[in-house]
Amino acid sequence: MPKLRFARVLLHVLTGVCTCAFIFPWISAPKRDALVRRWSHQLLSLCKVRVKFIDQSGGQLADHALIIANHVSWLDIFVINSWQACHFVAKADIRSWPIAGWLSAQAGTIFLARGKQREVRRIYEGLVHQLEQNKRIAFFPEGTTGAQGGLLPFHANLFEAAIEAKVPVLPFAVRYVDAQGQLHSAADFIGEMTFAESMKLILAAGEITAELIQLPSIPTEGAHRRELALASRQVVADALGVNIETL
């Protein structure tokens, strides 16, 4: 059965490629966002991942905020996109991934090459402009994926974009649980694990529930980027039940 499910996932990916190539150039941004949301829902369904949205923010909207979340798996992007289509900031090497890199670019991913200060500055200025234009920008401040049950330090640099654009930070906590509500290790995408290995584990795992927890926004007026990074990490840790003082 996992082989059949893998074939269905592959077919869905190819459908996404065709949509990006032949439909995206001719439709408006809102229609593209709607297709991204629907495609993400369908991908997660094929992977037997059910998204449970939990609002702990008091109903705040994401249109005027920089969205951040902890990073567990490649699934995270599609879990968030199934809620609201976002433009993600990702490492530049993802652009070279077969199919997935091209799909990410077509979905509006912003690729960041670390160590190239001129390019970093150009992309940073673009982030500020897009935030000022009320586009939904999201990134994972841990910078890489980490095993569930922990939380890596948050890099502070990109939080500066929210300060300059005068928008709040809207944090999310993401976790994957089984039918008993326990953390589901099949979702972890860490170490030297390949995408194929991760997909094999997920397809063999049965149903996984992805909990997407929206937390209260954090104002940026008068704040420093390091303060925002620390505050964001703390609220995400609290939502996940992680004691970061012991990490």
TrEMBL record:
Keywords: Acyltransferase, Lipid biosynthesis, Lipid metabolism, Membrane, Transferase, Transmembrane, Transmembrane helix. Signal peptide: none annotated. InterPro entries: Plipid/glycerol_acylTrfase. One of its GO terms (molecular function) is acyltransferase activity. Pathway: Lipid metabolism. The chain crosses the membrane at residues 6-28. Residues 65-177 form the Phospholipid/glycerol acyltransferase domain. PANTHER family: 1-ACYL-SN-GLYCEROL-3-PHOSPHATE ACYLTRANSFERASE, 1-ACYL-SN-GLYCEROL-3-PHOSPHATE ACYLTRANSFERASE-RELATED. This is 1-acyl-sn-glycerol-3-phosphate acyltransferase.
